[in-house]
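dumping these here so i dont lose them again. two proteins, back to back, each one seq then structure tokens. dont judge the mess
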Amino acid sequence: MRRIVLYAIIGLMGVLGLEAQTIKNGSKWWDGMVLYTATIDEFGVVNMNGIWSHPGHFKFSLSPVEGDKHPYCLSADAPDAVLPVRGELGWDADYIRKDGMNFIAIRKPNGDICHILVLTPDNVENCTAQEEWAEQQPVSDILNSMLLNTTYLGRFTKPKLRLMRNEILARHGWNFQSQDLKDHFGKQSWYKPVANNNQIKLSVIEETNLQLIKSEEAVPEKDRIKSGLFKNLPARQAIAEDFPGGLADDGRGPEIIDGEEVYVVENEIQFLANLRSGRTVYIPDNVHLNLTRILENDTHFKNRPGRRWSSDASAIISKEPLVVSEDVFDGRQLTLVNFSGLTIKGGRNASIEVDPRYSFCFNFINCDHCQLINLIIGHTEGGNCSGGVIGVRGGQHNVVKDCDLYGCGTYGLELIETSDFGLMDSNIHNCTYGIMEMRSCMAIRFDRNDFFHNREFTLIEATGCEGVSFQDCRFYANDGDAPLFGLDNTFYMAGCMIYHPTENLGTIDMADQSGAKNWFSENPLDKNIMPRGIGPK
């Protein structure tokens, strides 16, 4: 078993090493007890200055390492400095961004992660409150859903740590060799041992927590962090510098990008905190957000101003803008209610993803003048029956532009009782039921879009809609056995290219084709179809 565990750890080193990124100036990092702010000097050295709930300051540095698989190493301003993090001068450090997680991992010489610092938008008081919340949760509930830290682990005895570490594996059916572990987990109704441990795959959270716990077990008892030791210390007084962004929810304030005032977000918590009417939220280049990680944590919604934890967002009676975590069959979805003038924009390769197959990635209810621009949006796995990439119910003048909408159950778009909606310069592909479904809508326009690799029912379905138009759109590589059009009212179509069997064009006779000529081909997989730069830039 030791050999197999070693292989798993070596594999993790490779996986996490590939995710290394550059730490940004002014970013804040929480290690369970101390909140650090990063400042970058002219040589690229990351200087970390920390504060905590009591008087006193902490500092250490991360020096860049050229040509190494780990981009940083622990350093300090003196060779005999005592580091406030677990590690020694020269030990490797990575900035890992994977599956919605953003954290710095400090590694022992054997590659095991021994200390982490998580990127956060919060101040020290809020971070401490989150830590106190975690301590109140059943351990089994957070082993695979939350990154642990040395402060949290300091509460447990080493025998308990061993059981925690192995429970991560047991939850996946790890077949143990040690008899005491076999006996312990054999009493759990959920434990189903597998035949081959090599088939088990752990998430980034699980693998990181496994290594942290293993490292904690090796720490001498006198060196472990016991949070109770500090309970009698005086509280630290908050100062103005704790809130450098003034009234901004995450304390950072707006930035100016290409002459536009935007709120830059780099993780799910920052994203949620900055959703406001009349605001532009910007997701930088190559940043990937998985909203499921925050939507399933009720502490981010319950008893929070402007947020709701709901089983049915459409039943909420309110005129104020609300960010809602809404229940769906296999998880929760993000629903924005009563927003006006919100723009969510992405840089190059910026993406937003959700896990539940029956959810929408974005669901808008009674929103006006909102925009999604230059984003890759989709599901980790397609589904059936309900859900989609973007849902819009009510409201008017909403736009999706330069986006890639993919991999959903059931439709790329579901529009209900909305007006003046536009999809422009975007793709919809790999949807399980069809391209879009519209009900009781007015003035819906589709300009210069590509629709491809969608299945399996009527691909474009609309009932009770007026003023639907398709201009310069392409329909290709979709399920040829599925009817393409299923509209019960006249729609306008000009300058479009339709690669679909004639007998399955559906209600094409309802199309007003008086404008620019449309082009038709019987072959959905025509070899002359070439990319044309539609989607995110």
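---- next one ----
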Amino acid sequence: MSEVLLVEIDFNDQTWYLSEEGFIGDNYYAPYLASSPELELGQIKGGYISVRIGNISIANRANDRSSPFSIFGGGYSKLISNPTTKIPIRIYWEQNQKSESIFTGTMYLQSFDVDKLDFIIEDDFEDVDLLDSVEDIKSDLTEISTISIKGLGVVSGDNLAEVLAPDHGLSTGDRINVINSSIANFNTPEGSTLGDRRPITKVDDNFFRYKLDTATTSTQPSGVYSLKRLQKKSVPFSFGKVTREKGLIQTEDGTEGTRGFAYANPQLKIASDFSGTLVPIQLFDDGVLVGSNDTNQVKRTLPSGGVNLTGISVSYDVITITTSAAHGLIAGDVIQLTGATPAVINNNDIMTGYVVIDAPSTTTFNIFNNAEFSDTPSVSSATITHQGEYFGSGRLPTAETIFSRSTDNTTSTTDGTVLLGTALVSGESKNGSTIADFFAFIANKLNIPSVDFSQAPNASLVNLQLWETRQTKVLDFAGELAISANYLFEIRNDIIKVIDRGFEPVDFIQIANYDIISVSYKMPNPIKAIRSSWNVNVVNATQIPAQLDEREESVMITNLQSGEIRDITYSTKDIEDQRSILNSIKLVLNKPVITVDIGGIRSDIKVGNRIKFNREEDGVTVDMNVKTINFRFDNLQTQVAGDGIIKLIEQDDVY
């Protein structure tokens, strides 16, 4: 039986075939491996499975014309001059004339001496930023390094100037401000025809253009004028349903074009994205609802349309009003109450009206009033006026922007209101709502064409609620989310393979006891409970105007009478959904971890596989799911580790 390690690398515009002792197959694999590589696959970033340990040594034969790193072909100079260059590598295991792929990735130089070149092996995947960025209208202006501004005269009807700024980093639509130019045409003063912050058109990485109020063909070198740009900030990432979340990036302040505020849309669905029931986008000013794309949020009065006021009750300082049919009010709505008795519970000014604390049902809602009275309250002759928070047809949200409410939401006016406090938003993300949607989003973000859910059949049933305002990398974020939701994933051959840690595949690999070199068993640490916590923003209607309070919520699952309390990052702010996730994690944490050394290089075993074996020496039978694989090419062994179930071998014979 022939067993040989084969390595292929792409370097210096050529594929090189390497082995330890030389091998002739479809190609000749030259004996340039200085030693057997070390390769371990497992979790490296939360639930992300990749190379945990990986290195390979190649003989340093710079004077050998057949070496990939020869001085004669320029390979040695290219490698030493660019040590961080990622070199594509493929590792195969040849056994009984059958070649099995072990790993495909990249390597880069770590160190070298006269005998060998040592390389680090890693996945060939390029991570990207999770959050997109937009200009923040509230940010400070930042100076751009330029060489000159040149007037182009009139081009296609526009007065244009062209700026030479090597590697300026701007994109079309980004806004700049120019001051102190001795050629006044180049300046963008406040109150000018086109405004003081003007959008640019990118020509290439070194040139961009902007419009002038008055044309010129003059040229001004740098050092005289000051050219600045608006800073860009990261737009929050949303997933699932979000409720009153902070961190919106303001893109308009009403000083240019139409009046009113506007914010970058954090990927929330707009009305046209829904085929069924609308989950409205709601904009809050601290605790007050100031915008909604729900067309029912228009100015109206109650009683009307079959909705009558049927009851009122008081519990301490909270007044509960009951209606005969659905009132359509939500937390944060502002209402005016008139005609109720006693008179002290009325509020005759809509500008300082009652803020709805919450709506326990479709026919009840709560408001706050701490006035003293002894008479039995009544709303039999009362009227409730709801000003309405509909954005208005002229300021409805778009895929890119959430505008503040129109100054008159019954018309198509494009002028909007201003917000005095912190802007918050509610809605439903267009990025998806389930684990399956999440990994489809990750695949799209990383340009991966396919996702394999064969080992995560319930991924479409697990709901998530995420809101991230910190810039991070996609794989880091996905790894953290995966492990907190009890999932793993790996990327191989342009496929994301998703693994449910609690899923037990029907198929399994049986390992014969005579193939096993050693086994160790690690019992789970005692865990008293598993807990997740998060913060929510709630309306505090006891203040005028209403404020927003941050409140911590949590869910905890009891496990044992003693041990540690294990904190798990939340995956959803829905208490029951998070409880379900914690229960699934508990089942995994209560399993022992089994590590087994198997003779031979077992390229057929993958992370996520289920394996079974009887260990007669220990008197047990093991059923486990593989989470880590270590290929030990130097002594022809494969070590696998994972959680599983250990049972005693039943003895039927009497000796």
